[in-house]
Amino acid sequence: MNTRITGTGYSLPAFRADNDYLATLVETSDEWITERTGIRARHLAGEETTVSMAAAAAEKALKRAGADPSEVELLIVATISGDTVTPSTACRVQALIGADKAVAFDINAACSGFLYALHMADACVKSGMYKNAFTCGIPNSREVGSEFAAALGAIAGNEELGLESLSDVKQKDAERAEKLVKQGKVQVILQDISSRIFIEVEVKTKLDQAVVTIEDTHTNITGIVVNGEVRFANSKEKTKGGEAEEKPQIHRYTFRQLCEYADIADVSELEFIWEAYRVNLELFEAGMTSERTTFAKSLLRKNGGMVFSGEEQKTASLLCNAAIEARVIGLDKPAMSITGSGAHGIIATMPLYAAYKVNGYSKEQLLRATALSYLICMYIKEYSGKLSAFCGCAIAAGTGMACALVYLRGGTVEMMEHTINNMAGSITGMICDGGNQGCTMKGIAAVDAAYQSAELAMDGVYIDDVHGIIGNTPEETMRNMGEIASPGMIGTEKTILDILQRKGNR
After folding, report:
1. Which of 72-81, 86-95, 262-271 comes out lowest in average pLDDT?
2. Against a cut of 0.70, is the pTM above it?
3. Are residues 101 and 22 in the same domain?
4. What share of the chain is helix, strand, coil (3-state, %, to 5)?
5. Which pLDDT score, from 0 to 100, does residue 139 have?
6. CA torsion sign, 433 to 439 to 444 to 446?
7. Residue 100 dihedral angles phi and psi, to the nearest 5°
8. pLDDT: is 111 or 285 the higher one?
9. CA angle, corner 92, sides to 91 and 93, nearest 5?
10. Is the preceding omega at residue 139 within 30 degrees of 0, hence cis?
């Protein structure tokens, strides 16, 4: 994903002082100045300030870009002549132009500050998969990490299998991959940070070189270049008013309309959801039978040694988190994914199966509740993006699942709205430090929070909309939850990645 300049603006003081004017103040001349500097005139500030000129320039840039101030998410002012020490120039410019959603700060780095600001802005809008690949388990292997995964993919990956491309890996393939890594022939570089997926892979041999780019989804190849020749290109530019920038379809609906759809949809349209249960239950079984899992065994003991006990919440946590653990340590079973994440799919799905089995709900009730869970998860994720420091597994999928629990129990739409408030006020802000065994602990927290939020809401206990990030409507609350991720956690994401890189350099 490339960063583009879509609009520029400028502002100058009204008073123009040419070299002849300067000659009236000091001993100099137009000829002397022009010969040595090439400067014939400059503008001198009178009533103008750094803030007023920066705001005027920003407004022109926004106009040329066809953008509204409300769309601005980051505002950096590079200056050594701020009007005040605090508040920063950027914050005052932010107020003048009405960019009330932006993160704003100054950079004071003398003449190089402008370049630093450009580089920082570029880093804040680009994407990287480094974090999620750093310690995630790899199918058919006890190894973890992006270097080994890349090597194994090069040796034995089967592109025809899509997200299951490593399902046919053999022991000899793993040994060859390990050898490549130890020889230093695989290098993983963190490029940039954003909530979008962007991966660039370069393979070199003695004779040839190939570069492949992947964007937005894990299997969406957007470019193939072999020995400098473009063999495939499918990158769509995002333009103002273009299809790619239209409001996500799910955001065209209200929360109440999503609930209504879950009620009235032809159940035959929801039958495909049953496949999600089949896939995730097989993953769960793999987790329960593997000698490598630990959380799964502990949760089974907590549930009285039974998969399905009379305790719904403990059963829900077992089903959900044994499957998550199996996924993150790399057991050879696929997970049902939603919004590009297997953990999202597991959390939005498996606890509901526990409710279905323990309480004897009908299959139709389960399918309708699960559909609602998925819709709410997607609603929040369209704001937060696929990759960020924000744990969407617990927060987006957990909120969907919590509302679905209320639905299964015959709760009202208002109770579900209050459940969203409880989830937003409790676990929003949980960080994501990549796909790793910690995801299991986050899943445990998500299930616990979902059950508590749902039960409290159905009892008339919920966080009122005057508090914290709770909005005036459920739609606004879900938007706020998503926006915590980006731009809200750009700095957090950078810190997490710095930590992971330090670990990798030990």
Report:
1. 72-81
2. no
3. yes
4. 55, 10, 35
5. 58
6. positive
7. -75, -10
8. 285
9. 90
10. no
